[in-house]
Amino acid sequence: MFQTVLAILFLYATNSNSEETTTQPDSEDEDSRTLDESIRLYGPFRNYVELGLPGPALTNVGLSVAQDAKFENDVSGNYSFEFRATTKYFVYIARYEKGELEMIGENSTLRVKGQFSETFKREKGGDYVKTVGYTIDENGYKTFLLDLSTVRIEYWVTKGIVHLVGLPTRRKMYISSVVLASLSGGNLG
């Protein structure tokens, strides 16, 4: 009887090892793939501060006091606008653009620089915020990668106080599942 059980376990183990298993990719692999794909599409990172662009400007939704939209226009043809998007947990600049009208001799040329951001889910939880910059001038429309941030929300409780951990202006925010469960009724079972 014992030998039969061992034989069955051996056959099960060898058959299950020979089958291809599917697992979720490691978050570093996922991050590397996403970064490589973004660089392939838009080229290497360019410094948004040096370009005079705001970048993603990630902010905790509870701490954000920024307007959802701003628009400025002067009488000389220059303009700028900014739209912020709000998710359940964070706010980011979804679109920014600045246009300046320049006189070159007797002709006027509009030079535009801007950025747009998109969010999409990470397989291991959280979100990506990809920010792409662009210029529009007499040489056409050109895009480039400005930022690829990962955002994961995690709360932790200490002495009854909920803390938000992360860098609210740039990279990461976290919320633990334990706190989320406790906020939604506390029943994990």
Structure, described:
By secondary structure, the chain is an alpha+beta fold. It has a domain at 26-151. Helix content is 21%, strand content 42%. It has three helices and ten strands. The strands form two sheets. Strands 1, 2, 3, 4, 5, 6 and 7 form a seven-stranded antiparallel sheet that branches. A hairpin with a 2-residue loop joins strand 8 (155-158) and strand 9. The longest helix has 17 residues, at 2-18. It is flat. The chain starts with a helix and ends in a 6-residue tail after the last helix. The relative contact order is 0.15. Mean pLDDT is 75; it is low at 1-25 and 166-173.
Largest sheet: 7 strands, antiparallel
Order of helices and strands: HHEEEEEEEEEEH
Q: Over the alpha carbons, how many angstroms does the gyration radius reach?
A: 24 Å
Report the span from N to C terminus.
38 Å
**Uncertain stretches of 5 or more adjacent residues:** 1-25, 166-173
Q: What structural category characterises the helix and strand content?
A: alpha+beta
Mean pLDDT score? 75
Overall body shape: flat
Percent of residues in β-strands:
35-45%
Number of helices: 3
Number of strands: 10
How is the secondary structure organized here?
Layout: H1 2-18, H2 27-42, E1 59-60, E2 69-73, E3 79-86, E4 90-104, E5 107-121, E6 127-137, E7 140-151, E8 155-158, E9 161-166, E10 173-174, H3 177-183
Antiparallel strand pairs: 1-4, 2-3, 3-4, 4-5, 5-6, 6-7, 8-9, 9-10
